[in-house]
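#structure-requests
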Amino acid sequence: MSRLNLDDFSDLIERPDSGVRRVAEEHRERLAVPPGALGRIDELGEWLSAAQGRVPATAVEHPRVVLFAGDHGVAGLGVSGRPAGGAHRLVRATLDGVSPIAVLARRMGVPVRIVDAGLDCDPALLPDEVVRHRVRRGSGRIDVEDALTADEAERAVRLGMAIADEEADSGTDVVVLGDVSVGGTTPASTLIAALCGTDASVVTGRGGAGIDDLAWMRKCAAIRDSLRRARPVLGDQLELLAAVGGADLAAMTGFLLQSSVRRMPVILDGVVSAACALVAQRAAFRAPDWWLAGHVSGEPAQAKALDRMALNPLLDHGVTVGEGTGALLALPFVQAAAALSAELPERTEGAESTESTEDAESTEDAEGTEGTEGPERESGAGEAEAEPPGSDTD
């Protein structure tokens, strides 16, 4: 197997059809509801038409939540609100239907797929369909060592690519992408800081579970030390993921790139998916045109990454729990855009003619009224002119 070069994706990924988008914009102009009255729903409908290559856009009927799971060695430094090596408990909660993403997905009728890329647990604790893809057990402590070997990084990226192909082949029309991790926001923030050229303090947040000030300081120091290891390998995205990423982040990066190749739209969740998207954009600049930012997670690194990719989040509702929850809440907006694009009626010529006829009748009535008053005034004036007092004709 030849070594994977992520830069090759630049030639494989095309933008959504701009010609179709122009037709979609013209279609929107003809709808009975005035342009702009539906806000960003209009923009979403046009984007979806371009992604699907058809006008109007068709209904989003086969969405899917895809979550990549992993543990990160850096969590052992006390930089997370959850115990190190505990991501498998979050996975179990989702499988048992008691996590926020599981509850929402069940209510919305959206299937959830969890892919173990690097959990630090006994594989027997989880179903085979979850753990069978595992690249390694946990990722390395990125402040002092590589997260992955070069071979593991490539295997993880190829895993994500394979999952994207499976989803596209099965008919998935929109993916809600998230992560299930402990310590994942630290490598994610490191990647974003490295790619945006910023300091650790600018990107360090408090994670989905929340941390106190002392933990924040430890996290900031870990990101600072990890940045020193990241900067020398910025020229190679695969080496960067190996140095300061992780198995789940590398897999998500591969998933995003291959989803763009397969023309499958993706809704991004929080800072982890944003970091992977930024790495993918570095490899293929057209790829972000296939992604939507689902929501604002409150992580400063996410805001930095989305700004760099010019992605405007759909929602800002204070959700920090992660695991794809915020992105799934944005899915109904995408479905609404498709439905409105396809089902709203256009302004018909008959309706326009009726409006014109009504306007004309109103005008005629007004003119008729004026015409009645006019002759009376003219008649009176004529009489006065015909028989003026003291007229010379008398």
